Amino acid sequence: MIIDEAQNLSLNALEEIRLLSNLNTDKPLALQLILVGQSELCDKLRRPESYQFTQRVALTYHLKPLVREETEAYIQHRLNKAGGDPALFDPRAIEVIHQQSGGIPRLINIICNTALIYGYVDHKKHIGADTIYAVAQDKADNALLIDSKEQHAAEEPMISSAMASFIQANTFSSCDVGRIEGQGCLL
After folding, report:
1. SS3 letters for 81-96?
2. Where does CATH 1.10.8 sit in the chain?
3. Rounded mean pLDDT of 86-111?
4. pLDDT band with cut points at 50, 70 and 90 for residue 179
5. Are strands 34-35 and 2-3 parallel, antiparallel or unpaired?
């Protein structure tokens, strides 16, 4: 069972999940759980009330933000998969996307998707840094983007290395897919 956005689970829900894991005591893995969440999940699991649950965690992996080159590869990969031109965003635009997103894939997606809409409205064939700055300003005005220093502290998602290998082996062949497609903490 995979639970996404697990940082939103209450402590009572985590306890119920822990009780479900008791099904595994006399059989070989009758139930395997994968929790996916933002850093708040790890904070919740560090609480004393979560001690029994945390004892059952076999693997954890902390996904760091993408570096600039990975951000570019990620954007190009997504454009390729959508049948678009991987060079749609000019190099300076990619640099600004990386700066504004702090390398967080979810924020990269928000900035790029909004930039594509802006580009469509303005009949642009390529997306430049000016469009990205406009998106970043609009998103910041609406509190949808935070300062990139805060992003690194507040939103470094996590993914299990086993799941990253599975995704990479079974879904895509280019890019470090575990770092790119994973959005959370897999436990």
Report:
1. HCCCCCCCECHHHHHH
2. 68-154
3. 94
4. very low
5. parallel
CA distance 144 to 71: 19
pLDDT score, position 146: 54
Amino acid type, 120: Y
Q: Which residues are CB-contacts of 33 (< 8 A; sequence separation ≥ 6)?
A: 1, 2, 3, 17, 20, 21, 187
What is the fold of 68-154? Helicase, Ruva Protein; domain 3 (1.10.8)
- Given its phi and psi angles, is residue 175 left (phi above 0), alpha (psi -120 to 50 degrees) or beta? left
Enumerate residues 6+ apart whose C-beta is below 8 A from 47.
Answer: 11
Q: 105, 87, 96: which is closest to 135 by C-alpha?
A: 96
Cβ contact 61:186 at 8 Å: yes
31-70 pLDDT, tens per residue?
778 888 888 888 898 999 888 888 888 888 777 899 999 9
> What is the per-residue pLDDT for 149?
42
Q: Do residues 178 and 168 lie in contact, with contact meaning Cβ atoms separated by under 8 Å?
A: yes
**For 50-160, where are the alpha helices, taking DSSP H only?**
51-55, 68-81, 91-101, 105-121, 129-141, 148-154
pLDDT tens-digit readout, 133-176:
999 999 888 766 655 444 433 333 333 444 444 444 433 333 33
